[in-house]
Amino acid sequence: MGRYRVLLAGLLVAALTADLQAEIKLIGTATIPGDALDLSGLKGTFKDGTPVNRLGGLGSAIAYTGQGNLYILASDRGPLDGATDYPCRVHFLEIVAKPGQQPPLEVQLRSTVLLRDEANQSLVGSLAAINTEKPERSLRLDPEGIRVGPRGTWFISDEYGPYLYEFDTQGRRLRTLPVPKRFQPAKPSSRPEEELPPHNTVGRQPNRGLEGLAITPDGRKLLAALQSPLIQDGALDAANKRIGIHVRFLELDLAEGKTRELVYPLENPSLGVSEITAVNDHEFLVLERDGKAGSAAQFKKIFRIDIREASDVSSIEKLPSTTLPNGVKPIRKELFLDLLDPKFGLAGESLPEKHEGLTFGPDLPDGRRLLLVVVDNDFVATVPTTIHAFAVDRPDLPNYEPQRILRPAARP
Fold it and tell me: How far is CA 362 from CA 69, 222, 371, in A?
């Protein structure tokens, strides 16, 4: 009988352990009205009537500052998809999660900071603000990822270039970080259709550049994610329809400037990577989604990835559309969170399209991890910016390491 008692005790312990590992839960959702105004102090309107100080597009990128409940969010290129001289900017928001209380999530705008280049010129979202001779010196910027460095500076990924930049706490660009030439179109243009084949046979697809950005907890490395495969990586068929699934992630050592390129496989060619955030120095969460809203949406998922065994494909100029060369190991991925899972109640006619921001915040009072997912409203006045707060049980991310930030990101 002793053997059976031991077995029964073991099963009981296992059951109790399983109960302790609670499922990921939605704490609550907050919204910012689509017609809200920011704190930039800018006046006037764009040609479509949108106020220049519209608080919009800030679901593209979010990062925790390391201070209390303060986050930094970057608006993307502005209204009308790059057809305006929208002055690029970031916003500091206080976001407080209060599980079990009403409201469970509170949001308040604290400040807005305009972005400028090294010569103190305003960076704008206009497609036309391109320097075709020296594209890296262009004044056009489409911020899609943002992370706070260990000393408080901001790293921003630019979908236009694509480029990686570092900004000081006043919004002035400090430097341009190395991105391999193969990521950029050989013939950049102010017209997206002219950046596709046959005009370009290499580089990022239009509006599919460096969409996601993560920083390791020690602040030593960035991991930047393209939204879709490079043109030369079997991305498109003869009619420029997307058929490729192999997305390059760029790992950058900030001290040495060394880079590696890793392959992230999309679940299918119609999807894209929207964001990436660090769990530790080798594990990350990746937001992968379709481009559909409402009941038509089929895929809004967050994957946990591990890059330790992934091959460096920097020496491979062209990747096949769907099958990797022998010996090349992709990034390992597993499902972490399905945003369309019925238990969250988010799916349905009112579901917005662009879930694009992803970050951890400070731990919740009960010790669970706080994970925020932000939805971009594309500056549409009738569509709010949406922020979802999830509670993640510690056993679900046993190796999680919070980012170490030595200095404040800014003082709003």
Answer: 7, 21, 9
Sequence-ordered list of residues with C-beta below 8 angstroms from that of 240, at least 6 positions apart, any chain: 196, 197
Q: Is the pTM of this model over 0.70?
A: yes
| C-alpha span between 94 and 98 (Å, rounded) | 13
32-84 tens-digit pLDDT: 999 999 999 999 999 999 999 999 999 999 999 999 999 999 999 999 999 99
Gap between the terminal Cα atoms of the chain: 68
Asked whether the beta carbons of 74 and 59 are under 8 A apart, the reply is no
Phi, psi values for residue 232, rounded to 5°:
-75, -10
CB 60 within 8 A of CB 376: yes
Q: What is the Cβ-side half-sphere exposure of residue 332, based on CA atoms within 13 angstroms? A: 7
Say which CATH class 24-396 falls into.
mainly beta
Locus of tokens 């009537």? 49
pLDDT digits (tens, 9 = 90+) for 257-316: 999 999 999 999 999 999 999 999 999 999 999 999 999 999 999 999 999 999 999 999
- Nearest CA-CA partner of 78 in 160, 194, 165, 161: 160
Q: Where are the domains of the chain?
A: 24-396
